[in-house]
Design goal:
The complex is a heterodimer of chains A (about 170) and B (about 775). Chain A has 5 helices and 5 strands; from the N terminus they run ββαβββαααα. Chain A has 2 domains: about 1-80, Beta-grasp domain (Ubiquitin-like (UB roll), Roll), CATH 3.10.20; about 80-170, DNA polymerase, domain 1 (Orthogonal Bundle). Chain A has a 5-stranded mixed beta sheet, covered by helices on one side. Chain A has helices spanning about 20-25, 85-95, 105-120, 130-135, 145-170, and strands at about 1-5, 10-15, 50-55, 55-60, 75. With about 775 residues, chain B is an alpha+beta fold. Chain B has 3 domains: about 5-30 and about 480-620, Aldehyde Oxidoreductase, domain 4, CATH 3.30.365; about 35-140 and about 210-260 and about 265-295, Aldehyde oxidase/xanthine dehydrogenase, a/b hammerhead (Aldehyde Oxidoreductase, domain 3, Alpha-Beta Complex), CATH 3.90.1170.50; about 305-475 and about 625-770, Aldehyde oxidase/xanthine dehydrogenase, molybdopterin binding domain (Aldehyde Oxidoreductase, domain 4, 2-Layer Sandwich). Chain B is about 25% helix and about 25% strand. Chain B has 19 helices and 28 strands. Chain B is globular and about 85 Å long. The chains are: A alpha+beta (about 170), B alpha+beta (about 775). Chains A and B meet through α2, α3, α4 and α5 of A and α1 and α17 of B.
């Protein structure tokens, strides 16, 4: 069947089998380019390595039918290249040595991006527990989450400082 | 032996947190892992796994599958030459039994290979599995290790191991060890107290988030290329050559970025399958395990039962220690001898005494296959020993910290057990030439608040503290070795080619730091190529905590050799003594008025002196200096529900001099998170029929960000003379202590000793009830 999706801001037409998951369509091809940031880890919605944004909300693309994305917007890390918040998050993860094997990193980054975007919109700063909750669907076997949480905390603090400065300027 | 300390150049490239050289491309999701690049015309493979834990595969009829449009080939045992081997992925001569063929005629565990399908798409390959008709003769399944030991009428392996490690054809014993120093039985009779307890360790799985995945193809010269997520490219090439009857010259193994390994990718889990199907079809073939296949058909940590017998005097002096291990290797004997050997060798030396007895019986069963997993037998032994030390202290009425301090290994002590237990053969004895254990204990006690236990956070909870000590090794002494090649380019950059295998731990980065340190250049000038059997020199691979210590030694030597060449070129140009040439800050100089940038010197070497500065060096160590850890847990327990809340966890680790402190901490934090699962919730549950009951991440739970306690990680630097810049290993030692530290804390909180992990609420609750009765 034909599926029309707005992938990373551009309209795409996919040919997909009726049972195909969003993960398989994004990752396996035959459509090019393949979205290699979207990783296959469990296919049961438990590990979060395949996290993407569906209309701005994080979903495990391995348990979302490709057909569900028809007429909707799908955003992957590839589509957030150059986005200031995503760039800041990526730099923070790298600087904090929070990227070991890196296989879970894109999924983590999508979850953190969503959290910080929501918090910025609401004018709040996420604490340790909120960051851990946001990451709780992204399993990482390498880091023990210590450095990823520290990286996210640092970006959240920077955003809060920027927010305060902007409020002061107004 | 090589002592590196004199070579220490000092300076800014090692010992600092540089940016991990591959981190940005990983964080951007760029196509760098095995499955991210698909060759044109690639076929998708699937494995038909056995539905029975033990069954002869009498016949396979693939005609219906082959009739399905898009199915290209189906292979099973009649079509594949049975050459006995081991998939363990170890150095030649391999210390694991030869009990495996590519396609077996008997399934030995649920999920064992029955047939391989390759098709034009994954969906077609999956559909074809259901169209393969198999005739089985179902055999009784041995899923209990005591039953496997007792019975000889049912044999998991009916063919003798050609090299006699396993007792195939005679019994279900895959490996035995019986080594003694002194005389434990006689010594026990002289002790004031003899304490004996039995401990049980579960089957757990490495659960790297990237599953096993491999892609193979034939290159333009008809050579077999295997691009795979592996820890051991060179071992793979050797094993594939033998079992596929190819020349090693006609095989190229390429390791791209790897999404975690933890020992599970030391094994040849699937590379033989894709290679076989590529040779049959002449087309590229890709195979990736599902998470269910990971939990049923990859490798697990060996489940063990350990009986500890300790003889001790009233003053706390340990006189004798016996460790008797019964282990379940599952369907095949991958690492059966060596993992179990490590259970004693890496653990018992913590408390040196004149009488040590170590016994192992490792059994074949029809359970999932056990194998290498970070810690490699030591987490099991450490749980038993460190739980037992608390029990001995209780019997003595002595403080458990004092008992440890009185008996633990010290600088200058020898480890007689290592001489008796090598990698499957006589090993090398070990003298402790660096230890930060005393400092680690002191700093760890301080960080956890050992002498000022906090009150429970709520009246219905009980609070407890626990500790454990651990030691491991740095590579396998006299066995592990690696090589490195360095080459200078005219812009002053350096190509560093290493067989050492970066699997996410960051070895490319620390090896670049070490190379840069020796050449006096910035680490950013070093371009690392790791693990391509055509392009890089040999290395045994990423296992046994060997890379920084062993492969790092090769990098330092190669860089030093090239530095000497450059000093010669410089000396000739400037007419100065080569011995006075100084390298640093991307410059080369001899006195105040003779100086060039490294780029200028490189250009001079290539275009004027007409020589390529380059060197290859190999390094092996006859030592395996142990890193040490002192680990501490602060827990609260709800006695009504048995629930355990891990509040704070402290690791104080002596891994020598860290090259990249941030990544060394990361090794510790990751190891602790895996070990928290081992202690509290991870267990691959197998029923009596041999079926895994929880083969997914919902039911086989690994730690999430919400399961982690407050983590304190303390590096305790020491200077190990046999390691480059004083390094020892960091990857494995921190996974050993958390389980006993946490369980000792539970015992401290509720007064009930759990001898079995994971400490699930049900087990804790039952133990509290039993202790109360």
């Amino acid at each position: 069947m034909k599926i029309v999706v707005k992938l990373n801001g551009r309209n795409r037409e996919w040919e997909a089998a009726p049972g195909a998951t969003l993960l398989s369509v994004l990752r396996d091809g035959p459509q090019e380019p393949r979205m290699t940031s979207v990783k296959r880890g469990c296919e049961t919605g438990d590990c979060g390595a395949c996290t993407v944004l569906l209309d701005g909300q994080p979903v495990n693309s391995c348990v979302v039918a490709a057909a569900r994305a028809h007429g909707h917007a799908v955003t992957t890390i590839e589509g957030l290249a150059g986005d200031p918040l995503m760039t800041a998050l990526q730099a923070a993860l790298v600087e904090h040595a929070a990227v070991q094997c890196g296989y879970c990193s894109p999924g983590m980054l999508v979850s953190l991006y969503h959290l910080l975007k929501e918090c910025r919109a609401a004018g709040t700063t996420p604490g340790d527990h909120a960051i851990r909750e946001a990451l709780s669907g992204n399993l990482c076997r390498c880091t023990g989450y210590v450095k990823p949480v520290a990286a996210a905390t640092a970006v959240a603090a920077t955003l809060a400082a920027v927010g305060r400065a902007e409020a002061g300027a107004r | 032996m090589t002592d590196f300390v004199n070579n220490r150049a000092g300076g800014a490239q090692v010992g600092r947190n540089v940016t991990k050289i591959d981190a940005f491309k990983l964080a951007r999701g760029e196509p760098v892992y095995t499955d991210d690049v698909h060759p044109a015309g690639m076929l998708w493979a699937k494995v038909l796994g056995s539905p029975h834990a033990h069954a002869r595969i009498l016949d396979v009829d693939a005609s219906r599958a082959l009739a399905l449009p898009g199915v290209v080939d189906v292979a099973w045992h009649r079509q594949v030459k049975p050459i006995l081997h081991t998939r363990a992925g170890q150095s030649h001569p391999e210390p694991s039994p030869y009990d495996t063929v590519i396609m077996p005629d008997k399934a030995r565990h649920m999920g064992d290979r029955v047939a391989i399908v390759v098709a034009e798409t994954l969906a077609i390959a999956e559909q074809a599995l259901g169209l393969i008709d198999v005739k089985y003769e179902v055999l009784p399944a041995l899923t209990d290790m005591d039953e496997a030991l007792a019975r000889t009428d049912v044999l998991v392996h009916e063919v003798a191991d050609p090299r006699g490690i396993a007792e195939g054809g005679r019994s279900n014993v895959a490996a035995r060890i019986d080594k003694q120093v002194g005389d434990v039985s006689a010594a026990l009779k002289t002790c004031d107290h003899v304490v004996e307890r039995t401990y049980w360790l579960p089957r757990v799985q490495a659960s790297h988030i990237e599953p096993h995945v491999a892609i193979s193809w034939l290159d333009e010269d008809g050579r077999l290329v295997v691009r795979t997520s592996t820890q051991v490219p060179f071992h793979l090439r050797r094993i594939l050559a033998r079992i596929l009857e190819l020349k090693e010259a006609d095989i190229r193994v390429v390791k791209p970025r790897v999404g975690g390994g933890f020992g599970d990718k030391q094994e040849m889990v699937m590379e033989d399958i894709v290679a076989l199907m590529t040779l049959r079809t002449k087309r590229p073939v890709r195979l990736e395990f599902t998470r269910t296949e990971e939990l049923t058909s990859a490798r697990c940590r060996h489940p063990q039962r350990i009986v500890m017998t300790t003889g001790v005097m009233n003053d706390g002096t340990i006189i004798a220690n016996r460790m008797n291990v019964t282990a379940d290797t599952g369907a095949y004997g991958s690492h059966a001898l060596t993992v179990q050997g490590n259970t004693g060798q890496k653990v018992l030396p913590m408390y040196p005494c004149a009488n040590i007895h170590f016994q192992v019986t490792c059994l074949y069963t029809n359970n999932p296959i056990s194998g290498a997993f970070r810690g490699y037998g030591a987490p099991q032994g450490c749980f038993a020993l460190e739980s037992h030390i608390d029990e001995v202290a209780k019997v003595l009425g002595m403080d458990r910290l004092e008992l440890r301090k009185k008996n633990h290994i010290r600088l200058g002590d020898t480890d007689p057990l290592s001489a008796k237990l090598g990698e499957g053969r006589e090993g090398l004895s070990r003298v402790i030439r660096s230890t930060g254990l005393e400092t680690a204990i002191e700093m760890g006690c301080d960080a956890i608040g050992w002498t000022r236990k906090r009150p429970p956070s709520a009246p219905h909870l009980r609070r407890g503290l626990g500790m454990a000590l651990a030691m491991q090794g740095s590579g396998i002494a006299g066995v592990d070795w690696g090589a490195a090649t360095v080459k200078l380019n005219e812009d002053g950059s350096v190509n560093l080619a290493v067989g050492a295998t970066d699997i996410g731990q960051g070895s490319d980065t620390v090896l670049a730091q070490m190379c840069a340190q020796e050449l006096g250049i910035s680490y950013e000038k070093v371009r690392v190529l790791s693990s391509d059997t055509d392009l890089t020199p040999f290395d045994v691979g990423a296992y046994a905590s060997s890379t920084t210590y062993v492969s790092g030694g090769a990098v330092v030597k190669a860089a030093q050799q090239m530095r000497d060449q450059l000093a010669g070129v410089f000396a000739e140009k400037w007419a100065c003594p080569a011995g006075d040439v100084v390298f640093g800050d991307d410059n080369v100089s001899c006195g105040p008025d003779k100086a060039m940038t490294m780029a200028e010197l490189a250009t001079h070497a290539l275009y004027a002196a007409k020589m390529q500065p380059a060197a290859t060096a190999s390094h092996m160590s006859n030592e395996s200096p142990p890193p040490f850890a002192a680990q501490f847990a602060d827990v609260e327990v709800d006695p009504e529900t048995g629930e355990v809340f891990l509040r704070r966890f402290v690791s104080a680790v002596d891994c020598g001099t860290p090259i990249h402190p941030g990544m060394a901490e990361g090794q510790i934090e990751g190891a602790v998170s895996q070990a928290i699962g081992y202690a509290l919730f991870e267990e691959v549950i197998v029923d009596r029929a041999g079926k895994v009951k929880n083969p997914n991440f919902l039911d086989y739970k690994i730690a999430s960000a919400l399961d982690m306690p407050e983590m304190v990680t303390i590096l305790v630097p020491t200077m190990e003379p046999s390691g480059p810049y004083g390094v020892k290993a960091a990857g494995e030692v921190p996974i050993d202590g958390p389980a006993p530290a946490i369980v000792n804390a539970i015992c401290d909180a509720v007064g009930a000793r759990l001898c079995r992990i994971p400490a699930t609420p049900e087990r804790v609750w039952r133990q509290i009830k039993e202790a109360g009765e």
